[in-house]
Amino acid sequence: MVIALPSDKVIYHAIPKVACSSVMSACVDALEIDFPSSEWKPEVFQSRKWDHLFDRRSIVVENRLPPRRFDKYWSFAFVRNPWDRLVSCYSEKIRSDGDPENFINGVSRVLTSFGVFEAGMSFERFARAVAQIPDEEAEPHFLSQHKFIVNREGNLIVDFLGRFEAIDQDFDVVRQRLRAPVELPHLLRSQRGHYRDYYSPDLAHIIGERYGEDIARFRYTF
Fold first, then answer.
1. % of the chain beyond a pLDDT of 70
2. Cα separations (Å) of 1 from 138, 199, 201, 219?
3. How far, in Å, are 77, 83, 111, 184 from residue 169 at the CA level?
4. Phi, psi angles (nearest 5°) of residue 219
5. In the chain, where are the structural domains located?
6. What is the mean pLDDT of residues 57-83?
7. Average pLDDT score over residue span 186-190
8. Are 80 and 163 in contact (CB under 8 A)?
9. How many Å apart are CA 139 and CA 110, to the nearest integer?
10. How much is the mean pLDDT over the chain?
11. Pairing mode, if any, of strands 2-5 and 60-61?
């Protein structure tokens, strides 16, 4: 999803599982719309429920690169260590306590069509299944990150690329571009161990190959 903030001439390229909910929440504050404080702010962009508060056509560009009218906008995105991002995806999408609206028998609805994900499956089984699904067929939550921010010529399309691992400091760069004072909340913070604890050397190698271009482009190591 691409989110434009017209009053600030700023564009956010959202990459799933890279603090999306937190950055979207900050974007809602930047819009300065009359949004109820008790509601889930990212829903502004994720559903049509709040369309009466703003002109969606000028704010959200669904799953595609922005048209030419946004050429003069300053753009940004955040990336994350691919090994860590996949653990986060597993923790969120394979859950026995998942709500019926978004889960079917412990598996996120966005994954059920693949036919390979099961409730209670181990991370290793999950990761090996993901490794067999190419980017052309991947669900956005485990699609390679460069696919969101690199054009057909292989060039990065954002002006600033922050890192999840340093998001508090890197978001300061974004904050300086916004008129309204905004804070970056830490939403959907997962309760789990370090990502390296989930990997055997063999599995780390498999996932390293699966996300090889992300690792090379963004200079991550296991």
1. 100
2. 15, 30, 34, 24
3. 14, 22, 33, 11
4. 60, 55
5. 1-80+153-190, 81-144+191-222
6. 88
7. 75
8. yes
9. 7
10. 94
11. antiparallel
